[in-house]
C-alpha cells in the first residue's frame, strides 16, 4: 500500500463502497472476495482534475464522451475526473452544469464532477454563490479564446478572485496573454509563412512569455484579493519560478502541469504528423520539462493532470495547412499514470509516494474531495489502482480505449498501467481489461476546496 506517508505491506479490507479496515491478516474467510495484489503497488485511485469530454471546441466536438473517456481513465487507474462545464450563448452557470450532468449520467464508469466556467462575468458573477450551494466549489476562467466566447479580462479575474475569497472557493485559470498572442498569430498568418513552416508556426507564435506574463498578472490579482488561484496546465520554467516566488510570499496559488509537458517537447512539430500535437498551451523545450519535474519535487507544482481533449486524425486534418485551424488537444487519461510512473518514478525524478501525492492525494485535497478520494484510510471510498512495479506494455493506439485514433505516446513502452482498478469497491478493470459498467459513476458534490 502506497500513500504520501509511506509504503507498507498490509491487507485492505473493503465493505460495500468503503475502506473498512487496514492491517495485516484481515478476514480471508470464504465469505470475503480476495483481490491478490502481492508483488504490486496499491495506490489510491488517480484523480484527473483537468479533462474535457465531448467539448465543442475549435469548430468541432472533442471525440471522447463519458463512456470512452472514462473507460480510458479506468485503464490508467483514474477513478475520479473533473471536467469543465462551459456555458454557451445565453446560458447560466446552472444551465452549463445541467448540460454536463446530462453528458455524464448513464455513461460514466467513474465518479466525476465539474469546474464551472465563468465566460460572461457581468452575467455570471451573481450566479457563483448558487453554484457553491449546489456543491460546485471550483470555478474557471480563460485568459484567451475570445473567438470561442470564453475569454475573461482582468476585471473579471479580479472580481471573481474576490468572490473566491468570500466563499472559500478556488478559481482555476488558463493563463496566456491574449493580445500579444493575437499579434504574433496575425504577423505569422501569411500564405508564404504557412507554406514554409506549417505546424511549426504553433511553437513560433507561443514563446514562453505568452504564458509567464499571464501567470504573473493573475498571481498579482490573487495576491491583491487573497482569492485562491490554481494555474492549470502550466508548461513553462518561468511559470514555475513565478509560482514558487508567489508561494514564498504567502500568495494562495497552486499549480498543475500535465503529463505531456513533462515528457514531450516542441521538436514534435518537425514530424510529418506534427500537427497532431497542437495543444494549448503549446509544448515547450526540454529545459521547461526539467524545471517542471523539479517543481514537482520541490513542491511549487502540486498536481499532474492531462487536459485530455481528444480529436481524431480526421478532425486534426481540418487544419489544411493553416495552423490556427488545428483542433487543439490530445488524449491523456489512459496514459497519465503510466507516463508519470515510467518517466517520473522509474527515472528517479519522483518517489512512488510523491507520485501518489501528485496524482491522487494533492488533487483530492485541493479540489475539496479529500479524504473521500485520494486516501487509503478507513472511511474513504474504496478507489484503488494496482500496478506492477516493472512490467511494461507498448502503447498501441489501435487497442486503446480512447476514441482518438492516435496517441502522443504511440509505440512507447510504459509501466504503470492499472492491472486492477477498483471504484467504490467495484472491480472496474481486471487483468488490464475494462469490466466496469457504464453509468455506474456518480456525481461528487464538494465542500469548499481545502488546503494541500
Ligand atoms: O489544447 C487544449 N488544451 N485544449 C483544451 C482547452 C484548454 O485550453 O484546456
Ligand atoms: Zn486551457
Ligand atoms: Zn483544458
Question: Could you explain the architecture of this structure?
Answer:
The chain is of the alpha/beta class and 452 residues long. Helix content is 32%, strand content 20%. It has 15 helices and 21 strands. It has helices at 66-75, 93-104, 121-124, 128-133, 154-167, 178-188, 191-197, 201-204, 208-225, 237-248, 259-263, 286-298, 313-316, 336-345, 352-366, and strands at residues 2-3, 6-7, 11-15, 18-23, 41-44, 46-51, 56-57, 60-61, 78-85, 111-117, 138-142, 170-174, 228-231, 253-258, 303-305, 384-387, 392-394, 413-415, 418-423, 426-430, 433-434. The longest helix is centred in the middle third of the chain and has 18 residues, at 208-225. The two termini are 21 Å apart.
What's the number of extended β-strand segments?
A: 21
Q: How would you classify the helix and strand content by structural class?
A: alpha/beta
Low-confidence stretches: none
For the termini, the CA-CA separation is: 21 Å
Percent of residues in helical segments? 25-40%
- Which whole number gives the mean pLDDT? 97
Which percent band covers the strand fraction?
A: 15-25%
Largest sheet: 8 strands, parallel
- Coarse morphology: globular
Give every kind of bound small molecule, once each. Answer: N-(aminocarbonyl)-beta-alanine, zinc ion
Amino acid at each position: 500500500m502506497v500513500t504520501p506517508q509511506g509504503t507498507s505491506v498490509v491487507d485492505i479490507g473493503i465493505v460495500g463502497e468503503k475502506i473498512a479496515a487496514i492491517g495485516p491478516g484481515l478476514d480471508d474467510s470464504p465469505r470475503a472476495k480476495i483481490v491478490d495484489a502481492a508483488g504490486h503497488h496499491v495506490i489510491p485511485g488517480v484523480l484527473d482534475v483537468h479533462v474535457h469530454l465531448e467539448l465543442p471546441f475549435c469548430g468541432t466536438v472533442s471525440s471522447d464522451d463519458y463512456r470512452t473517456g472514462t473507460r480510458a481513465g479506468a485503464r490508467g487507474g483514474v477513478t475520479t475526473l473533473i471536467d469543465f462545464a462551459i456555458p454557451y450563448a445565453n446560458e447560466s452557470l446552472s444551465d452549463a452544469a445541467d448540460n454536463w450532468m446530462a453528458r455524464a449520467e448513464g455513461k460514466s464508469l467513474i465518479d466525476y464532477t465539474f469546474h464551472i466556467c465563468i465566460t460572461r462575468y457581468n452575467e455570471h458573477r451573481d450566479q457563483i454563490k448558487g453554484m457553491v450551494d449546489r456543491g460546485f466549489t471550483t470555478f474557471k476562467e480563460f485568459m484567451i479564446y475570445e473567438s470561442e466566447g470564453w475569454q475573461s479580462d482582468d476585471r473579471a479575474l479580479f472580481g471573481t478572485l474576490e468572490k473566491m475569497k468570500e466563499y472559500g472557493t478556488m478559481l482555476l485559470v488558463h493563463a496566456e496573454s491574449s493580445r500579444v498572442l493575437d499579434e504574433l498569430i496575425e504577423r505569422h498568418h501569411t500564405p508564404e509563412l504557412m507554406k514554409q513552416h506549417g505546424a511549426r508556426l504553433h511553437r513560433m507564435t507561443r514563446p514562453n512569455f505568452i504564458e509567464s506574463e499571464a501567470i504573473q498578472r493573475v498571481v498579482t490579482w490573487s495576491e491583491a484579493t487573497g482569492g485562491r488561484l490554481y494555474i492549470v496546465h502550466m508548461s513553462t520554467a518561468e511559470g514555475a519560478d513565478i509560482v514558487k516566488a508567489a508561494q514564498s510570499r504567502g500568495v494562495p496559488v497552486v499549480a498543475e502541469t500535465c503529463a505531456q509537458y513533462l515528457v514531450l517537447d516542441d521538436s514534435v512539430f518537425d514530424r510529418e504528423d506534427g500537427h497532431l500535437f497542437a495543444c494549448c498551451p503549446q509544448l515547450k523545450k526540454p529545459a521547461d520539462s526539467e524545471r517542471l519535474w523539479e517543481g514537482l519535487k520541490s513542491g511549487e507544482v502540486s498536481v499532474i493532470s492531462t487536459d485530455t481533449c481528444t480529436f481524431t486524425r480526421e478532425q486534426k486534418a481540418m487544419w489544411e495547412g493553416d495552423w490556427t485551424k488545428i483542433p487543439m488537444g490530445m488524449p491523456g487519461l489512459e496514459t497519465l499514470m503510466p507516463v508519470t510512473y515510467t518517466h517520473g518514478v522509474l527515472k528517479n525524478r519522483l518517489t512512488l509516494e510523491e507520485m501518489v501525492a501528485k496524482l491522487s492525494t494533492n488533487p483530492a485535497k485541493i479540489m475539496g474531495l479529500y479524504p473521500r478520494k485520494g486516501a487509503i484510510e478507513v472511511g474513504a471510498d474504496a478507489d484503488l489502482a494496482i500496478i506492477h512495479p516493472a512490467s511494461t506494455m507498448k502503447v498501441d493506439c489501435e487497442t486503446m480505449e480512447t476514441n482518438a485514433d492516435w496517441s502522443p505516446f504511440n509505440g512507447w513502452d510504459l509501466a504503470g498501467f492499472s492491472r486492477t482498478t477498483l471504484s467504490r469497491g467495484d472491480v472496474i478493470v481486471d487483468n488490464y481489461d475494462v469490466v466496469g459498467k457504464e453509468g455506474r459513476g456518480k456525481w461528487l458534490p464538494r465542500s469548499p476546496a481545502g488546503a494541500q
